[in-house]
Task: structure prediction
Amino acid sequence: MRASRIDTGLVIEASGDLDLSTIHAFEEQYHRSLDDLKAVGGDKTLILDFRELIFIDSAGLALLIGMKRELAAIEKELVVLIAPGTQLQRVFKIGQFHRLINIKFNLADAD
Result:
């Protein structure tokens, strides 16, 4: 997992699985990034780069919903990048996450 800054906000890259066994490390990175977003007034967006993510379980999905709510409360946006044609895209489509979360396929569309 890695975090980096772009012009409009922060990017957290995750790969492998986001499940009960990895969620705590991801939450820690999210909270560090959230602190950075709050400290820097111009940054508006937190981008989760999940293009290398293989699996997400219900704990990971619940975390995304919580992140969306928390960011909206401080007038920040959550964008999730996924690779097209993956199991992750299928999960998001079946769960209709596109109605809750801004889902994109590449970083250029996320800005």
In short: Helices lie at 23-39, 58-73, 87-94, 107-110. The mean pLDDT is 92.
